[in-house]
Amino acid sequence: MKYNFDTPINRRGTDSIKWDVPETELPMWVADMDFRTAPEIVEAIQNRAAHGIFGYPDIKDDWYDAYINWWAERHGYTMQKDWLLFVTGVIPAISSIVRKLTTPGEKVLIQTPVYNVFFNCAVNNGCTVVENPLLYNREDHTYSIDVEGLEQCLKDPQVTLMILCNPQNPAGRIWSASELLMVGELAARHNVTVISDEIHCDITSPGVSYVPFASVSDTNRNNSITLIAPTKAFNLAGLKSACISIPNRRLRHKVWRAINTDEVAEPNSFASIAAVTAFTQGGQWLDEARAYIENNRVFTGEYLKEQIPDLILVPSNATYLLWIDISALGCSSREFASFLRKTTGLFLTEGIHYGVPGDGFVRLNVACPRVTLEDGLARLKTGVEMFRNAHDLRS
Question: Of 102, 146, 326, 355, which sits most exposed with the smallest number of CB within 10 A?
Answer without folding.
Answer: 146
